[in-house]
């Protein structure tokens, strides 16, 4: 398979897998120990978790703490529900983990619009009395990079908390300075599935959603997985050290793919976008047919949200596409291990299959 769906998930980095293995011991080993146990094996597992916490924290601003969760979805729920904020403002192109949670807490949540390029205006207004503003760093469907630093500054100046879903930007871009709460997911940065994190600025109080043994600083009970934490930590360290090289690699792939698919129109800003994402539309394109013609290429229909729920994409709607244009859209996502020859082959075949329809 040529895998071009890196916004959905990323392959596990060999280094992350390697870091996980000692904590997947069976009988005869010690790596399976409960990291919350007091004897030596438990303390070793706890120490590995703290190393991983530092590695993840290195992707984030100073002055806060990292709480491991089961996913970014859980981290975002903890941030929104646990903050106690009742009046919310969120961008129109947030992931469902933010949009649906915000609406569950505040059915009247203000929805901050985006322009036709998929960008939130840094001077956008939200209602007086808003207690939490959430805008993502990089959009998962169209790759646009939002002016989160400016928005965070304005939110805080107005007395609101600022939450940033940095799932698609973490380890790639600088962390969103000025945010109070930042959510990450390991599996979007070449770490394992089943673990995320919430960064909480010092002084920001949260109430837990999951009660029990009080692990994770009283904010998230449940036995941590040392293997998942170690994999997340190793992936974070690798992302940090490779960020600049990777961005150049992705920019080269992006340019090649864009040229090969010149008969398509770009969805979202060309300038303010993460080069690992290419979202394109073509008049009258039958995306289901394209996908069935190219079953050995992993890419995504742009029109359906990433959950595969069949809901039309709220992101493509928010940038002004009608249902027909959204239905004719595809999302291609490149990553660290994607080769130029794979991109050329996949995009040449996509262009030919689309033209033959
Ligand atoms: N936020 C964004 C922008 C995402 O792309 C995703 C995953 O698709 C999530 C949140 C949820 O992440 P997780 O799979 O860790 O729950």
From TrEMBL:
Cross-referenced Gene3D superfamilies: 1.10.260.50, Aspartate Aminotransferase, domain 1, Type I PLP-dependent aspartate aminotransferase-like (Major domain)
Residues making up the signal peptide according to the UniProt record: none
Keyword hit for Iron-sulfur: yes
Aminotransferase class V domain location: 2-343
Molecular function as annotated in GO: cysteine desulfurase activity; iron-sulfur cluster binding; metal ion binding
Annotated Pfam families: Aminotran_5 (PF00266)
Cofactor field: pyridoxal 5'-phosphate
Reaction it catalyzes: (sulfur carrier)-H + L-cysteine = (sulfur carrier)-SH + L-alanine
Family matches, as InterPro entries: Aminotrans_V_dom, Cysteine_dSase, PyrdxlP-dep_Trfase, PyrdxlP-dep_Trfase_major, PyrdxlP-dep_Trfase_small
Alphabetical UniProt keywords: Iron, Iron-sulfur, Metal-binding, Pyridoxal phosphate, Transferase
The keyword Hydrolase belongs to this UniProt entry's keyword annotation: no
Similarity field: Belongs to the class-V pyridoxal-phosphate-dependent aminotransferase family. NifS/IscS subfamily.
Main function: Catalyzes the removal of elemental sulfur atoms from cysteine to produce alanine. Seems to participate in the biosynthesis of the nitrogenase metalloclusters by providing the inorganic sulfur required for the Fe-S core formation.
Protein name in UniProt: Cysteine desulfurase
């Amino acid at each position: 398979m040529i895998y071009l769906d890196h916004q959905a998930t990323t392959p596990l980095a060999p280094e992350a897998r390697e870091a996980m293995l000692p904590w997947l011991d069976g009988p005869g080993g010690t790596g399976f120990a409960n990291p919350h146990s007091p004897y030596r094996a438990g303390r070793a597992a706890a120490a590995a978790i703290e190393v991983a916490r530092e590695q993840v924290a290195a992707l984030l601003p100073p002055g806060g703490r990292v709480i491991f969760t089961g996913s970014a979805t859980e981290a975002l729920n903890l941030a929104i529900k646990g903050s106690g904020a009742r009046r919310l403002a969120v961008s129109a192109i947030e992931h469902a983990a933010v949009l649906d949670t915000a609406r569950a807490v505040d059915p009247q949540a203000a929805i901050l619009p985006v322009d036709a390029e998929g960008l939130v205006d840094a001077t956008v207004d939200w209602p007086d009395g808003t207690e939490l503003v959430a805008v993502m760093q990089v959009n998962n469907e169209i790759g646009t990079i939002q002016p989160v630093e400016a928005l965070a500054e304005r939110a805080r100046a107005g007395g609101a908390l600022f939450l940033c879903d940095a799932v698609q930007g973490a380890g790639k871009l600088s962390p969103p300075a000025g945010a109070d709460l930042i959510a990450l997911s390991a599996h979007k940065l070449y770490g394992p599935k089943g673990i995320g994190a919430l960064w909480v600025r010092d002084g920001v109080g949260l109430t837990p959603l999951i009660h029990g043994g009080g692990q994770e600083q009283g904010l998230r009970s449940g036995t941590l997985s040392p293997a998942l934490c170690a994999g997340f930590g190793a992936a974070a360290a690798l992302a940090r050290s490779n960020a600049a090289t990777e961005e150049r690699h992705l920019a080269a792939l992006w340019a090649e793919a864009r040229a090969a698919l010149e008969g398509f129109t770009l969805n979202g800003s060309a300038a303010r976008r993460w080069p690992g994402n290419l979202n394109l539309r073509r008049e009258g394109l039958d995306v289901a047919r394209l996908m069935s013609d190219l079953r050995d290429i992993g890419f995504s229909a742009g029109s359906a949200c990433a959950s595969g729920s069949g809901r039309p994409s709220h992101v493509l709607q928010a940038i002004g596409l009608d249902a027909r244009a959204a239905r004719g859209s595809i999302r291609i996502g490149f990553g660290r291990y994607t080769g130029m020859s794979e991109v050329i082959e996949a995009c040449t075949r996509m262009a030919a299959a689309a033209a033959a329809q």
